[in-house]
Amino acid sequence: MEDYQRRQLREFREALTRLTWPAERQQAWLREIGVPGLADELALEFDDFYEPLGRSLGHGDATPVLAELDALLTRMSGEVNAHLWRPDALTSEPDWQRVRELATAALGLLPDHAG
């Protein structure tokens, strides 16, 4: 596997891992990277890698779980759901708990593409 693809896969796993974190850790990370009010950064990172890696490497057994996660994040989007993207929503909205569950399941199923 090319170094570029390995790096992309590593960064995708990191983005997916951040979606598994508890709300407080996600909020701290958003503050750390300088976007404390933008919970959508978590979804944007996932989106940056999900489609490109799926096309080039596939997602193996994680495919249906990742598709469900992607669909949930898409459903959460839009002006009508702006409240879901505030940092306090990370602790209070059931959709974010479901995001964590799906991300955890996907991470456990995602092939490592090693070798």
Describe this structure in words.
By secondary structure, this protein is mainly alpha-helical. The chain contains six helices and no strands. It has helices at 3-20, 23-32, 40-56, 63-75, 89-92, 94-109. α1 (3-20) packs antiparallel against α3. The longest helix has 18 residues, at 3-20.
Strand coverage percent? under 5%
Q: Helix content range of the residues, please?
A: 55-70%
Order of helices and strands: HHHHHH
Shape: globular
The residue-averaged pLDDT reads 91
Main β sheet profile: none
Q: Structural class, please?
A: mainly alpha
Low-confidence stretches: none
- How much is the radius of gyration in Å? 14 Å
Structure annotation, total helices: 6
CA distance, first residue to last residue: 7 Å
Count of β-strands: 0
What is this structure, in a nutshell?
Helices cover 68% and strands 0% of the residues. The protein is mainly α and 115 residues long.
Outline the fold blueprint.
Layout: H1 3-20, H2 23-32, H3 40-56, H4 63-75, H5 89-92, H6 94-109
Helix pairs in contact: 1-3, 1-6, 3-4, 4-6
Question: Features of this protein?
Answer:
globular; mainly alpha; 68% helix; 0% strand; 115 residues
